[in-house]
Amino acid sequence: MPKTVEERLKEKGVTLPQAAAPAANYVPFVVSGNLVVVSGQITVENGALKYLGRLGDTIDVDEGYAAARLCGLNLIAQLKAACGGDLERVKRVVRLGGFVHCTADFTDHPKVVNGASDLMVEVFGDIGKHARAAVGAPSLPLGVAVEVEGLFEIE
User: Fold this and answer.
1) Which one, of 125, 119, 114, lies nearest residue 65 by Cα?
2) What Cα–Cα distance (Å) separates residue 36 from each residue in 64, 79, 80, 145?
3) By CB neighbour count within 10 A (0-12 exposed, 13-18 middle, 19+ buried), where does 18 fall?
4) Residue 50's domain is classified under what CATH number?
5) C-beta neighbour count of 142 within 10 angstroms
6) Residue 95 lies in a domain
7) Which of 1, 6, 48, 145 has the fewest CB atoms within 10 Å, i.e. is most exposed?
8) Which pLDDT belongs to residue 74?
9) Measured between alpha carbons, how far is 94 from 35 in angstroms, rounded to an integer?
10) How many separate domains does the chain show?
């Protein structure tokens, strides 16, 4: 019998964070029909910012991958809130958009955003496979290294 999302999280030793409140004039997610759009999530863990800096300068690819994974955990926390606490309602991870705070000559954006992409497949299995964009940015909110947004299909 296939494992539930919660069973996979427990098996991986992953505890989802509390869904963060928005930091400005926006909502953390919007449910429209059977789609959930989750606003960009940054590298906040237990209320503290992590992974501050730029890829290609003060942050290496492995740290960037970990930063994107943390963004992915925050995405799933928002998704869980959007689903009324029931992640079994998720039918598909449709798309992720990853933004990497980096130097002008940095070109490993996909390797960084894989941190969030790999997490989606670990947690959701085949329905975690998604379309994606991974782009560089000259700066990101609060100086974080990575921000990831998501689009999900739910029941």
Assistant:
1) 114
2) 26, 7, 10, 25
3) exposed
4) 3.30.1330.40
5) 12
6) yes
7) 1
8) 97
9) 9
10) 1
Low-confidence ranges of the chain (pLDDT < 50): none
**Cα separation of 18 and 3, whole Å?**
23
pLDDT value at position 3? Answer: 84
In a domain, residue 55? The reply is yes
SS3 per residue for 34-69 = CEEEEEEECCEECCEECCECCECCCECHHHHHHHHH
Query: Among candidates 75, 53, 58, which has minimal Cα distance to 132?
Result: 75
The residue with tokens 């290294």 is: 145
At 30 the three-state DSSP class reads strand
The answer to whether the CB of 108 falls within 8 A of the CB of 135 is: no
The whole domain housing 38 covers 28-140
Q: Which two tokens stand for residue 12?
A: 């991986």
The CA distance from 115 to 128, in Å, is: 13
